[in-house]
Task: structure prediction
Amino acid sequence: MLSQVDIYASLASLVGVKLSKVDAPDSQNLIDAWLGKSTKGRTILLEEAYAFGLRMGNYKYIMPKVNATIPEWLIKKFVDPGFSSKAQLFDLKADPSEEYNIAHLHPDLVNKMQKELNSILAVQK
Result:
């Protein structure tokens, strides 16, 4: 997996600029993957939209959102923001449309992904 957030560290590497730990802390140098020299990318990927999500392998986890209010502008766009008071887990290989929440079938994976997401969000504060 590659993310546009990785362009920062990857381009810095390409032009020989050394980044400090506070420069784009969530960006990874994946220049070889961007240039097609490697198939190795991220093992996890944070998704930030209307809810926090985490991609790990074939799975996508969406963190529960308690008492979420959907903004009026979003309601008018007929976009499902993914808000749910329950954890959501999807196998993107088997279910690319994210129609079947399988969180109840994989509680250990849900816990693992929630812990990873918590650690990422703690760094961002």
In short: The first strand starts at residue 44 and ends at 48. The beta strands are 44-48, 52-56, 59-62, 88-91.
